[in-house]
From TrEMBL:
Belongs to the short-chain dehydrogenases/reductases (SDR) family. It comes from Planococcus glaciei. InterPro entries: KR_dom, NAD(P)-bd_dom_sf, Sc_DH/Rdtase_CS, SDR_fam. This is SDR family oxidoreductase. One of its GO terms (molecular function) is oxidoreductase activity, acting on the CH-OH group of donors, NAD or NADP as acceptor. Residues 7-174 form the Ketoreductase domain. The keyword Oxidoreductase applies. Keywords: Oxidoreductase. Pfam families: adh_short.
């Protein structure tokens, strides 16, 4: 029997793409969900859709770059469901640009969301997981956490950081029985490219991303990691389109 049913799972960045697909996949497997993102209308629509199919889901408008809001998110999950089994730190932004363009605000936003957001997510759930000696922290990195592409220096830097932070967490928390998983997707068809502000670069990347696969494929990988026996940790997965070089 699967051990995924009735787990309480927080998903950040659940208002579109991989987070939304993961919410649907996990709801279908009987998980109790707490969804987070900034666009509340999208979360509300997703809640209605999942509830129509019999799923259990709550949501909270949250900016992952705010430490206070992430603590409030974890407190909300604990109050409503009594425990947090899993957090999927998925929220991310990718406004690619070459360094010489000095798009400092975009660098800052990648650092805030992709690195600080993941750290705040870890900080918010760790105390209750340690207390229970049980929990699973899943952080979404990228193939860009393994390779650096032109115009992706800062984005890649944040995604390498996610892998380093998750590996550090694994080493520190293994003796506390807390599982960690790094998910590194290749090209996935989502709204992520909309954050690119350079029109020429955006057009080239949109062209390259035509090989992208559905976010449902990443959702299944996340579900696979969660449903392992408690003494088994899938520490890292790369999931790419077969044809991606
Ligand atoms: P989307 O743009 O579809 O989704 C990004 C999600 O992050 C949205 O739900 C958005 O919600 C949320 N988000 C962004 N900023 C914040 C914030 N400050 N606070 C809370 N939520 C925020 O892209 P994807 O689904 O593709 O991205 C999900 C993750 O997957 C990201 O970490 C991305 O880097 C990673 N990834 C994606 C790949 C791809 O090819 N698509 C490849 C490799 C990794 P809202 O705007 O409502 O806050």
């Amino acid at each position: 029997m699967s051990n995924i049913q009735d787990k309480v799972v927080i998903i950040t960045g659940a208002s579109s793409g991989i987070g939304e697909a993961t919410a649907k996949e996990l709801a279908a497997r009987g998980v109790k969900l707490v969804l987070a993102a900034r666009r509340e209308d999208r979360l509300k629509n997703l809640q209605e859709e999942i509830e129509k199919d019999g799923g259990q889901v709550l949501y909270k408008e949250t900016d992952v770059a705010s430490h206070d809001q992430m603590e409030e998110l974890a407190a909300f999950a604990l109050k409503e469901f009594g425990k947090i089994d899993v957090i999927v730190n998925n929220a991310g932004v990718m406004p690619l640009s070459p360094l010489h363009e000095k798009k400092i605000a975009e660098w800052d936003s990648m650092i805030d969301v992709n690195i600080r957001g993941v750290l705040y997510g870890i900080a918010a759930v760790l105390p209750s997981m340690r207390e229970r000696r049980e929990g699973h922290i899943i952080n979404v990195s990228s193939i860009a956490g393994h390779l650096v592409f032109p115009a992706a220096a800062v984005y890649s830097g944040t995604k390498y950081a996610v892998r380093a932070i998750t590996e550090g967490l694994r080493i520190e928390e293994a003796s506390h029985n807390i599982r960690t998983t790094i998910i590194s997707p290749g090209t996935i068809k989502t709204e992520l490219l909309e954050g690119i502000t350079g029109e020429e670069l955006k057009a080239a990347i949109v062209e390259d991303s035509k090989i992208g696969i559905s976010p449902a494929n990443i959702a299944r990988a996340i579900a696979f990691a969660i449903e392992q026996p408690e003494d088994v940790a899938i520490n890292e997965m790369i999931v790419r389109p077969t044809v991606q070089e």
